[in-house]
Amino acid sequence: MPEKVLTHIEVRKDGIYVIINQDSSSVKSDILNVIAKYQIKDVDYGSIEKAINENLKEQKISSNTDVASKNEDMDIKIAADKMSASVIFHEPINSTNLLDKTDIINLLNNQGVRFGINEDRIEEFLKNRIYEEWFTIAEGQFPVNGVDGFTEYFFQTDKKTLKPKLLADGSVDYRNLNLFETAVEGQVLAVSHEAVPGKDGMNVTGKLVACVRAKNAPFLPKGKNTKILEDNKTLVSEISGRLLYADGKVSILPILEIPGNVDNSTGNVDFLGTVIVKGSVISGFSVTAGADVEIEGSVEGAFIKARGSILLMKGVQGGSKAVIEAGGDINANFIENAVISAGFNINANSIMHSNVSCGGSLNLIGKRGLLVGGKTVVGEKIDAKVIGSSMSTLTEIEVGINPKKLEEYKETTKELEKYSEDFKKTEKIIGILSKVDVNTLSNDKKKMLMDSIRSKILLKQKINACQLKAESLAAQLNAGNGRISVSDVVYAGVKVVINNAVMYIREDLQYCSLYNNKGKISIGSYS
User: Fold this and answer.
1) Strand partners of residue 252
2) Do 189 and 183 touch, CB atoms closer than 8 A?
């Protein structure tokens, strides 16, 4: 919308009136400038003060109608971003010289406005001759930024924490988890969308305004058993199998299905893809998978290992012989007398008398929600209903320490001890041989001395590297923020370690949370 912004005069029969812009920050100065511009005589300055004080829109300032002649002219204002320009036209005083279209365009060009001039607006002014109102006369062309190319996936790519569904009766549904995705032959897995190029703009001064250039789409994430169609934009599955998205690539791994038990009839199972066992895994046998493992029956004293996740629909009765290892999550109904480790989370109804480790969280859900006996090491959080037992069964829990990092730290410190011991031995040999004049040493002794010096340098480098690694791992272990939440009871007899803080539970605690507070374990309400 046009905006009145200038103070100006109007010559009437009875005198000269000033039309005042009271929104201006310098009203009085504006009026005085107009008086000087038109050389107005016999000015009543008292009327000016009155107009300002009473916030008047117009005021007669002189009865003398004699003013300096002024041709029709215009002022130009270019926006700070130079993407628009505005003009205001001033009415001629005692003059018949009017601007035409060519004059206006020339004035615009002289002031640097050379692009986007709206000639229709000029024509409109020439037709209506509206003065003392700003309006936009030119508009630049804004750049259109490019749109980056991208890959559209037709499966779930983010690794969200998935837990079994808790049913209304308190039991857990282990049959409808949808934890793994499958694909059929020819299924579209991903489509590459090309970048949309941008378009440069131009400001009213005629200078280029560059757009943001678009980035090309990344390469299609082709993995095992997938192919790119002739359009070079579509990735599809070559076979039917379990879908695996890892290391930025999509692969389809075949599924090996065992219709019954893993026992003498099948022998041990070792498969690159996903293994589904319809029956149980009997003691003494093993199932190893390059992807996931799903067992519908029970697991006895067996060895189960998966690069991905493990689903045990019934559970583990390990007899102190079962070992369960997953690179991803472990989901089970119950686990008894077993050694289990997961790279991420463990979800179960109950865990009894087992050695447990996981890098993520341990979630004990369902009717029992029980953790009792054995030793449990968890990287992030434990959420349980009951921990320990009324018989004060020794139950050890460590939270806030990533088991893999802890194991790596222990191995690093062992290496450091070994290198340090070898370094001392090498220094001793060098010390003994250096006491003798080198020229009197036999060739074998000279070689031993040179080899020892080289070994000392190499060992020093290894010691320094181990020390740095150990310090880094120690910092990571100490930076954990472990927490234990119990919705029912923690029984006496439970040993709790959260980061470096230790607490022995001496009496039962109910509906509580345990956490490390400035190096000590604090007890709060359940959360």
Assistant:
1) 243
2) yes
Phi, psi of 443 (to 5 degrees): -60, -40
Which residue did the predictor score with more confidence, 132 or 191? 191
Residue 524 DSSP one-character state? E
Assess contact for 309 and 180: CB atoms under 8 A. Answer: yes
The string of pLDDT tens digits covering residues 501-518 is 899 999 999 999 999 888
Give the strands of the sheet with 241-246, arranged side by side. 182-183, 241-246, 249-253
- On the 0-12 / 13-18 / 19+ scale of CB atoms within 10 A, 10 is middle
On whether the CB atoms of residues 92 and 98 are closer than 8 A, the answer is yes
In angstroms, the CA 292 to CA 274 distance is 5
d(CA 96, CA 70): 9
Query: Which of 311, 182, 187 has the alpha carbon at shortest distance from 253?
Result: 182
How does DSSP assign 460-507, residue by residue? Answer: HHHHHHHHHHHHHHHHHHHT---EEEEEEEE-TTEEEEETTEEEE--S
CA–CA gap between residue 313 and residue 164 (Å, rounded): 10
User: How far is residue 289's CA from residue 326's CA, in Å, rounded to a whole number?
Assistant: 10
Q: Do 513 and 486 touch, CB atoms closer than 8 A?
A: yes
Pairing mode of beta strands 293-295, 274-277: parallel
For the question of whether the overall pTM of this predicted structure is more than 0.70, the answer is no
Separation CA 6–CA 75 (nearest Å): 11
Q: How many angstroms separate the CA atoms of 3 and 155, rounded?
A: 55
Q: Which amino acid is at 258?
A: I
> Which candidate, 198, 201, 306, 192, places its Cα nearest to that of 244?
306
Instruction: Report how far residue 360's alpha carbon sits from residue 371's, in angstroms, rounded to the nearest whole number.
Output: 16
CA distances from 35 to 10, 130, 513, 518 (A): 12, 22, 81, 76
CB atoms within 10 A of CB 255: 20
Please report, for the chain, the start and end positions of each structural domain, with discontinuous segments joined by +.
Answer: 8-62, 73-139, 150-170+182-241, 254-342, 405-478
Tokens of 106: 């020339």
pLDDT one-digit tens code per residue, 335-363: 999 999 999 999 999 999 999 999 899 99
At residue 223, what is the residue type? G
Helix (H) or strand (E) holding 519: none
Residue 250 contacts residue 226 (beta carbons within 8 Å): yes
Ramachandran area for residue 59 (φ above 0: left; ψ -120 to 50: alpha; else beta): beta
Tokens of 321: 């012989």
